[in-house]
């Protein structure tokens, strides 16, 4: 069971709802340690002075802001102490706004809101928000940092997402490259085919159809090597020829999409271009990173070397 990362209450008006927050996402990734290939011992990082090359103890390490040209402004904990947000165990919902008013780019980390002690106020808020098309916006403090948060309801459960602040979003107007869109001329035929292609590829989202194929393949490589086997990789698929004519590309894509939807046996080019129809069960065990895709069977299997633990 996930451990709560925050315990407190949600308040709106005079109503207080005791709750706990647990992470809504458990990220899965492969992490590697670095070893000395001669002794198989761990490689450790040390904090070293750039000037002397010697290791510096924690008591002599200070915080500084780089002003440029190697000009630093030292900032102490005492300088920052008055700015620390007041500790609070409350998520104060200040306003309920239409969901569409929130820029999706603002959403950051997500949490499940679990009722604590008395479930009735929780159920009341979840039910009241259901179908309203609105999310509650508020602030709370977690681990000495203040967060902007959005509380949502599906009718039964409440969830919370921390939000980045608006001034943290990149202003599209400051990014080079978008100016090329100003002079684009799209014909009625191209637009009609593009819309038809979108429609032909439209279906309900099935989350279970999507997996991290790379991570699953790496896990199998690790299992094979640990068992003393040599991983075997499939050849990378041949690169598809680039179609310069946009109209021709749309026509071909639309044809393939319609054939794939109808289950036509010749519908291969579109599905191949997209790695197969979403949800197709793949043998993740036989895929690896692109850089190794051309690897073939090597010499006799060699048992995996188990690294000894070092202090």
Please describe the topology of this protein.
Blueprint: E1 6-12, E2 15-23, E3 63-66, E4 72-75, H1 77-80, E5 90-98, E6 107-115, H2 119-129, E7 134-142, E8 145-153, E9 158-163, H3 188-200, H4 213-226, H5 246-262, H6 269-273
Parallel strand pairs: 1-5
Antiparallel strand pairs: 1-2, 2-6, 3-4, 5-7, 6-9, 7-8, 8-9
Helix pairs in contact: 3-5
Structure characteristics:
311 residues, alpha+beta, Ku70, Chain: A, Domain 2, seven-stranded mixed β-barrel, two-stranded antiparallel sheet, 6 helices, 21% helix, disordered C terminus
Low-confidence stretches: 265-311
Number of helix segments? 6
What is the C-level CATH assignment of the domain at 6-27 and 84-164?
Answer: Mainly Beta
Class from secondary-structure proportions: alpha+beta
> C-alpha Rg, in Å?
27 Å
Distance between the amino and carboxyl termini: 31 Å
Task: Determine the CATH topology of the domain at 6-27 and 84-164.
Answer: Ku70, Chain: A, Domain 2
Based on Cα principal axes, name the global outline.
extended
Order of helices and strands: EEEEHEEHEEEHHHH
- Mean pLDDT, to the nearest integer, reads 79
Q: How helix-rich are the residues, as a percent range?
A: 10-25%
Main β-sheet, spatial strand arrangement: 1-2-6-9-8-7-5
| CATH architecture type of the domain at 6-27 and 84-164 | Beta Barrel
Largest sheet: 7 strands, mixed, barrel
Share of residues in strands: 15-25%
Q: How many beta-strand segments? A: 9
């Amino acid at each position: 069971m996930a451990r709560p990362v925050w315990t407190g209450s949600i308040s709106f008006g005079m109503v207080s709802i005791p709750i706990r927050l647990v992470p809504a996402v458990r990220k899965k990734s492969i992490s590697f340690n670095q070893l000395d290939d001669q002794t198989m011992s761990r490689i450790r990082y040390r904090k070293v002075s750039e000037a002397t090359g010697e290791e510096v103890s924690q008591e002599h390490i200070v915080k500084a802001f780089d002003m440029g040209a190697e000009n630093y402004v030292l900032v102490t904990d005492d300088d920052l102490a008055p700015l620390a947000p007041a500790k609070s165990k409350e998520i104060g919902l200040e306003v309920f706004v239409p969901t569409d008013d929130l820029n999706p780019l603002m959403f950051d980390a997500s949490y499940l809101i679990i009722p604590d002690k008395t479930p009735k106020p929780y159920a009341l808020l979840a039910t009241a928000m259901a179908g309203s098309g609105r999310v509650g916006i508020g602030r709370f403090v977690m681990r000495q940092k203040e967060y902007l948060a959005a509380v949502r309801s599906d009718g039964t459960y409440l969830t919370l997402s921390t939000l980045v602040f608006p001034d943290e979003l990149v202003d599209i107007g400051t990014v080079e490259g978008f100016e090329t869109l100003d002079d684009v001329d799209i014909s009625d035929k191209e637009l009609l085919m593009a819309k038809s292609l979108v429609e032909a590829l439209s279906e309900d989202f099935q989350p279970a159809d999507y997996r991290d194929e790379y991570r699953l393949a790496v896990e199998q490589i690790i299992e094979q090597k640990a068992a003393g086997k040599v991983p075997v990789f499939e050849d990378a698929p041949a690169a598809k020829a680039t179609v310069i004519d946009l109209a021709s590309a749309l026509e071909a894509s639309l044809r393939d999409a319609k054939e794939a939807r109808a289950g036509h046996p010749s519908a291969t080019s579109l599905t191949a271009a997209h790695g197969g129809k979403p949800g197709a069960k793949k043998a993740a065990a036989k895929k690896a990173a692109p850089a190794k895709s051309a690897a073939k069977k090597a010499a006799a299997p060699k048992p995996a070397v188990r690294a000894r633990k070092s202090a």
